[in-house]
Write a structure and sequence with these properties.
Length: about 80
Amino acid sequence: MPSKKYTTSDIGLASYIMLKGGKLLSTGRGRQGYEIVFDDLDGKCGLLAVEYLNSEFTKYDMYSKNLRLLLKNQI
């Protein structure tokens, strides 16, 4: 059976793909940081990546990251 995979290191994007029904194959750490791999046999992951960038979810992800940094840097 043919296999096509989509790999990202962006946790926000990966979360969005999962929210939209993407099938997670594996996670790990690679040379470039996180490595999150999805089944992309239908070729939808690239389209979802663009959809993610144009969505409100991107703002949510940015605010979430900034809040974590703020909390981490508090004394």
